[in-house]
């Protein structure tokens, strides 16, 4: 098991990773382009590096260009880089080739908790890249949370990460739209939250509102029954909702986009199918 780890990038995520490794008893070296950010971690027992170094480097920076800038001229031969920075899947694949061309190995990752959740129960991260390399360092990385390997394709971890984030962002933004709509009538958010808690729970459940499971089965089968609940009905209802937002004097870009997506799926001849048919329009822009 690796007992030494270098953390590169000491923003909120990277600094918390370093603290978590220190708490778990690891020999931690830290490096940041703004050197003063390492001071609080050095006080906790970390070693300050003048340049990025170490057999296992855990990276948390703004994007992958920051990795190129930070490691320019650094000897990567035999090194393992685990990069938890955000970027596009294509850029992660390019980065893997860049690291390999310098004798190192890149494992890409996306951690699915905010900084305070790192290393806490429920924390996990998606990893992709060579499984045998990840396996050598799983015990160390597990200090940050559960290690979930999703495949050899270095871009896959970012796809999982961004897919999860999209559900997170869009769900909470939809709630904010809903709170704004009801707020225009004087209803406080605290009054409506129990209903939305129930709705989110039902969507993930097994009952008649368990659409997460229902849609998953339909998507995998490529069949979208709509006899009792057609997409055309959803499109009409979404148009009504859009007018409600407009009548309330609210911003409408998100509901307008959803209304157009439903309408387009209907125009493409899928109005008699179910809501799941929308995925076919998503896959074929």
UniProtKB/TrEMBL annotation:
Which GO MF term does the entry hold, naming one?
Answer: oxidoreductase activity
Q: Which UniProt keywords apply?
A: Oxidoreductase
InterPro entries associated with the record: 6PGD_dom2, 6PGDH_NADP-bd, HIBADH-related, HIBADH-related_NP60_sf, NAD(P)-bd_dom_sf, RedAm-like_C
NADPH-dependent reductive aminase-like C-terminal domain mapped to chain residues = 153-283
- Which residue windows are transmembrane per the record? none
Q: Which Pfam families match?
A: NAD_binding_2, RedAm-like_C
Q: Which residues form the 6-phosphogluconate dehydrogenase NADP-binding domain?
A: 4-149
Is Iron among this UniProt entry's keywords?
Answer: no
Family under the similarity heading: Belongs to the HIBADH-related family.
| Protein name per the record | 3-hydroxyisobutyrate dehydrogenase-like beta-hydroxyacid dehydrogenase
What is the source species? Nonomuraea endophytica
Q: Taxonomy-wise, where does this protein's organism fall, top ranks first?
A: Bacteria, Bacillati, Actinomycetota, Actinomycetes, Streptosporangiales
